[in-house]
Fold this sequence. Notes:
Blueprint: E1 8-9, H1 12-18, H2 23-44, H3 49-53, H4 56-64, H5 71-74, E2 78-79, H6 80-109, H7 111-124, H8 129-143, H9 150-165
Antiparallel strand pairs: 1-2
Helix pairs in contact: 7-8
Amino acid sequence: MSMLPKNMDLDWKLIWQKQEMYPVLERELMRIAHSVHNFFEKEAQGGLVRSMARKADTWSKCKSLDWSLSDEFISTLVSTSEMKQEEAAAKRERKFNGNIDASVEIFSLGADYWQKVYNDLSKEKIISYGDVAFIGSIADYIRKASLPSAAQCKRLLKIIEKAEDKGYIMP
Length: 171
């Protein structure tokens, strides 16, 4: 059971950024906790609250009370569709940054490094000629001061993984 309005949620991004609850959320939770506490004390009628809290009918009564969220708190909620759009945009950005990072890392190893990998794998013949030739083309590409594309990096990493699976140890 959720008390939040349909298609609305807490501002999880704000909570994550601040690494703490925002004040309006904290006040709302304290208000609800007070109400629940008062309900259980009233239900216990001088008995143990712990005993009353274990009974299913007590929880049914608690759930059936007319709980309402403050307007101040509701105004801090965010649309779930907006959150999904932000998450998708962040995911695309991470993927983009990941592609750039791979390109830069591959480039920074230098043409000589990739030439050595090409020479080693040419001698060992553990992967196909086309894959070995591709590594040679990456070395040439880097020698011309060009950054490999995301697709080239992806293919190169797959080739290297294949070679390592067959026992090749990267220099």
